[in-house]
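Q&A FORM
Asked by: J.P.
Topic: structure of Pyruvate oxidase

PROVIDED:
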Amino acid sequence: MTNTKTDLQKTIPASVAMLRVIESWGVDHIFGYPGGSFNSTMNALNIEKDRLKYIQIRHEQVGALAAAADAKLTGKIGVTFGSAGPGATNLLTGLYDAKEDHAPVLALIGQVPSSNMNYNYFQEFAENPMFADVAVYNRLVMTPESLPYVVDKAIREAYKHNGVAVVVIPNDFGYVEIPDTPYSSSSPTDRKQVAGPVATDEEVDQFLTMVKDAKRPVIHVGRGIKDGGDKLVELSKKLQIPLVMTGLAKGLVPDSYEGNLGMSNRAASKAADEIMAVSDLVIAIGADFPFANLIYRTHDFKFIQIDNDEAQFGRHHFLDFGIWSDATTFVEKALDRSQAVAPSPFFTAAAADMANWQEYLDMLSNRESDPLEFEPIYKQINRIADPDAVFSIDVGDNIINSFRHLNLTPKNKWVISALFASMGSGIPGALAGQLSFPDRQVFHIAGDGAFSMVMQDLITEKKYNLPIINIITSNASLNFIKSEQEDIPMDFSGIFIEDQDFAMIAKGMGIESITVRSSKELPAAFDKALEVTKAGRPFLIDAKITDKRSIPVEDLELTIKDGELIESISNSFDASRPADKTYSVPDFFAKYDAQSLKSLPELFKEHGVEL
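REPLIED BY: S.T.
REPLY: Here is the structure written out as tokens.
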């Protein structure tokens, strides 16, 4: 007698069913490194290789950072894995990066076979408690049949909370045959555009009244503006309010707009720091600013916050007026309900401040240097970059330098480790960028300290023929930290690192490379990078630069006393100097070849700004 039920019931290995759930959510590649406790999933990856590409990174931290970068660049969930024990612990840095930057990531964690659990087996340990803080969803799979369901649920939770979901998988479960049924809950509903909250007419009118009453308003722009940069420029012009960008909003408003003053704080333009320091109304729109305690506490001002998450109100400053609204929708409504104002001396002075700053940056970029300085490198990047190029920028001085010198527009994609600021995020971001956008040009920019942490994964670029342009700014110094140590009374400690021949290291991995030591060598090096990457191969430029510090505009201080604007230099600047040594503003400018810069009091006087 035939068992009809058994004959009709198709089965599938549980790990294959799990991977097909992941595929149903639009994932086409996954980062990880094999281990014995993950072999059932490795077997499934081989079965699914035509639908899901396995990217073999050389360190789990790189895989987790790459998955986080994938999510930041695309908005889709990034997926990574690690085996039991050290494979799992190695993932944590990248997963915390995803958590802090609100990126949806799925982490699959190997565990010893269920029959060996609780026997102090090799590499066995309680993994879920380790991920409790980093994860929005954190589960140990209890049965083979539940494996695809738990992973589907994990993906939903990661998307819901824009965070990390962790699934720990006993290795033997993945081999078990389970019913071949649709386990995924993915549907077109998941791709709906969700309308955000909308400001009321009364809220917009109150906002406009507060702007009218202000003498020196400024809009602090966050990435919540999304695709509304052009509309925000229109509002900025109409109401004569200059824009200061948070770091993650770079590129959402064209750098070329005269009212875009760039970033504030340390990775800043002079204009942005100065204008923020004298503002009497700060309007934060779609912005989460982690340096608020440094910038928002320098003086009193009225504070308006516009955000689609009302839980953010008052997070960074005492609130005078909160508007629960989608950022772009608010801007559109403010445009509809406002009247254009006459040209403002304050706005004109702010734009002149930024133009003066840009002229200074252009001078630095265009002058010849031997030994090489960093600014001409960015001139070459801007020269050869495609309009829609993707940039992965590692932590350190290159964040400051990229914010100041790299030309970005809404057509570009770019990624950094923002709030967690994990050194070594550059290569992972470039891997993610090239895999997710295979038809785009991809740049990886890193200093020698950050690059050294992950340079083994250059071989991953080679293995998968990823035509990434790697630019290593090498000065044998942890220069970002060196600058911080200059601002406290101490001798330099622990910041000088041994130089390496990164071009030779790259060649040892089969990657074409070149070393440059003067600005005259840059054009040919970048032309070669273009030639090689257009042929489908990665390339590395080892740029041996000086360890000079770029001008620390955060050390400019402004006060208004008896109706007069006074600019001075912070006492923390050059903190180890003799007690009798002081810096005037001209002295400070001269130290950085910035004699062409004008102080804000000069610019206010030129443009007739009344305090």
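FOLLOW-UP: The first helix runs from residue 4 to 8.
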